[in-house]
Amino acid sequence: MKAAVVSGYGGPEVIQFKEVEKPIPKANELLVEVKATTVTVADTRIRAFDLPSGTRFIGRFALGITKPRRKILGAEFAGMVSSVGTDVSKFKPGDRVVASSLPKFGGYAEYACIPERSMICKIPEGVDYKTAVTLPIGARTALYYLLKADIEPDKRILIYGASGSVGTFTVQLARRFGADITAVCSSANTKLVQSLGATKVLDYRSPNFERQLNCYDIIFVAVDKLPTQIAINHLADNGIYLNITDPFKKISMIRESIRTKKRFIMAENLKDTSQDLADLLDLVREKSLQPVIDRVYAFEELPEAHRYVDSGRKKGNVVISLG
Ligand SMILES: NC(=O)c1ccc[n+]([C@@H]2O[C@H](COP(=O)([O-])OP(=O)(O)OC[C@H]3O[C@@H](n4cnc5c(N)ncnc54)[C@H](OP(=O)(O)O)[C@@H]3O)[C@@H](O)[C@H]2O)c1
C-alpha cells in the first residue's frame, strides 16, 4: 500500500511516499481503508520536533531520539472497515468509521489498523468522511476542556485563538452551552468567528487589544500566544484559565492561585471516551455543529498541506482526501 513516511525530523520535505506492507489486523483490531485524514498541529509538531519548551528533553525519548519513532503520521482518520480481527464484535467490513489514531498515529496511509477498544466510532448517515475526520482531535479537545471549566449558561468566556481547529469548535460548543463569548482572532477571521456564535470578537493585533478586554469566568487559550499576565489580570477571582498547549504552570500562575481562587488548568492527555466522539458526530448530523474546513488536499499534496499548517494561519481544519 502507499503511505507517507517521515524519514527524519524536519520540514515538509521529510515526508516521502513509499510502498509499504499493508498492515494485518490483530484479533482485537480493525483494518480500515483510509478515505480522509487531516494535518493537525500534533502532526506538524512531531514532524518538525517543535515541542513546547520544557518538554523537548523528555520528548526525544517519547518520540524518537534522532527521528520520529512513528514513521507514518496522521493523528486522525476516517474510512471504511476492510476487515476485522476474530475478537472484534462491534464493527464489520463495510462500516464507515472515524478514529483518533493517537498515540500511535498511522492515518497517512491507504490502510490503517486500530484496536476496537480505542477512540473509534461509526459515522452516521448524512455525514461524509471529510467532515467526520475533523472531530477526533479538534472538537473533542474543545468539548473536553469546556467541560473541565464547568461551562454553564451566561458564563463569560474569552476564547483566544478562536480561528484554529480547537478555537472554531470551542466557539460553537460554548455557544451551545449558552456562554457569553468573546473571541480573539485577527481581523481577517472576524466574520468567520462571528458566524460561529461569538458575541464579541477582538483582534489580537489591535493596539488597544488589552484595553478592550473585560473580566472573564473562563479564559480558554487555544493558541498559546496570550501573555500570562494579561490572562491573570482579566480572570475573575474564582475564574478558570485553560491552556491546551503548555503542560507547565508558570510561577505567576502558582502565586495567583495561592492568593485568589483562580484555577489554572494546563494541557494534559485527553481521556479516551468514544461517547464524546459519538455525541459530536450526532451534533454534526443534526447540523448543530459545523466543522470549519479551510482546505482539502489530495494525498499526494500532503507535504504542501503540512507547509500550509506550518504557516500558523489555517482556519479550522486542513483535510487530506484519499478518494
Ligand atoms: N491538549 C490537546 O489535547 C490538544 C489537542 C489539539 C490541539 N492542541 C494544541 O492546540 C493548539 C491549537 O491548535 P489548532 O489546530 O486549534 O490551531 P492552530 O493551527 O495552531 O492555529 C491556527 C490559528 O491561529 C491563529 N493565530 C496565529 N497567531 C495568533 C496569535 N498571536 N493570537 C491569536 N491567534 C493566532 C491564526 O489566525 P490568524 O491567521 O487570524 O492569525 C489561525 O487561524 C496547538 O498548539 C495544538 O498543539 C492541543
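^ NAP complex. DSSP finds ten helices and 15 strands in the chain. The mean pLDDT is 96.
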